[in-house]
Amino acid sequence: MAPTPCDTPPLSSPTQPLLPDLTIDNITDEVVQASSRSGDARLDYLMERLVTHVHDFARETRLSTGEWMAAIHFLTQTGQMCSPVRQEFISLSDVFGLSMLVDSINHPKPPNCTQGSVLGPFHTSDAPHLPIGSSMTTDAAGEPMLALCTVCDSSGRPLSGVKVDIWEADSSGHCDVQYTGRQAPSERCVMTSDVDGGFWFRAIRPVSYPVPDDGPVGKLLGLLKRHSCRPAHMHFMFEKQGLDRLITTLFIRGDQYETSDVVFGVKPSLVVDLDKVDNETAAEYGVAEGTLLLRHKFILASVRETEELRDEKATEAMVMLGLKTKLVNHLPVPDLD
């Protein structure tokens, strides 16, 4: 196939100065200038900061050609490892702590609300919508657990009609999408909170497990002499109009990886204890006495609460960084006025 001719005229004029002799010291300014003409203030700002930081990284580390090529090959292999049921780039973002950082910036929570955590690479959109009280597990080897949960707003009012997406690994530490020939979702479901903000289900005790280490991210962890394990946990995602979407995780207290989660997802407020079902609760919910019991109240922030807090924190951060910016659609852009 013949190359397509370049038919976009350059942004130049007869009076434009000659291109300077590009050097280590001045190339960043030239690239920033060339990348700041989109007409989209936020895009221009993102590119200006990205180019500046990437160039500074290369200068500060005196990045070698071999290291640069190794990084390109690493990112290429990361993309090649992605599939509809595996997102290696999310894993990369997770192990760098970037996923947690972005979530914390974009979804700050009032002090009394449930804190967020990472989505992880194994969420799917095909989980079955089950009635409250159903079992979400098909794992006979797992230790049975009853989960009794409620969801309310920051004022303590019960929230009905909240879509609750729930998922976890099986008793061997594998998510369903990790199995070749997966036929149907397992260890996951979607429920809707009732008029009292309640939802309950049967599952298995969460277990600790390694993130997939057979790809580029696993090799990187090995080079860094970092383990690849996550503490025992269960994922939850809450959605309803007017509420800030909450992606969070409950971690089982006492796990050996509680303080060294490979994706930095653990927060003290998300670490919970498991109890045992007593005789009265067993009769009410139709489970055996002594079954493991997870009981938790989730407190959700509204979109308005989150936006106000995000704006406040963004303004404070920009001042501390010495950057003159203003907020447009709750995101900072240069203030050129």
Describe the structure.
The structure is a single chain. Helix content is 28%, strand content 20%. A five-stranded mixed beta sheet has the order 3-2-7-8-9, with no helix packed on it. A hairpin with a 2-residue loop joins strand 12 and strand 13. By secondary structure, the chain is α+β, with helices and mostly antiparallel strands. The protein has helices spanning 27-34, 41-61, 65-80, 88-95, 98-106, 216-223, 279-285, 303-320, and strands at residues 144-153, 163-167, 188-192, 198-204, 209-210, 229-230, 233-239, 246-252, 271-272, 275-276, 292-300, 325-328, 331-334. The model has no long low-confidence stretch (mean pLDDT 93). Among the domains are: 94-174 and 185-301, Protocatechuate 3,4-Dioxygenase, subunit A (Sandwich), CATH 2.60.130.10; 307-336, no CATH class. It is built from eight helices and 13 strands. The radius of gyration is 24 Å and the shape is globular. Belongs to the intradiol ring-cleavage dioxygenase family. InterPro entries: Catechol_dOase_N, Intradiol_dOase_C, Intradiol_dOase_core, Intradiol_RC_Dioxygenase. Pfam families: Dioxygenase_C, Dioxygenase_N. Residues 135-280 form the Intradiol ring-cleavage dioxygenases domain.
How would a textbook summarize the main sheet? 5 strands, mixed
The tally of strands reads 13
Q: What gyration radius follows from the Cα positions, in whole Å?
A: 24 Å
Strand content: 15-25%
Please bin the fraction of helical residues.
25-40%
Task: Output the CATH homologous superfamily of the domain at 94-174 and 185-301.
Answer: Aromatic compound dioxygenase
By CATH, the topology of the domain at 94-174 and 185-301 is: Protocatechuate 3,4-Dioxygenase, subunit A
**CA(first)-CA(last) distance:** 48 Å
Which term fits the overall shape? globular
Question: Which regions are unreliable across 5 or more consecutive residues at pLDDT < 50?
Answer: none
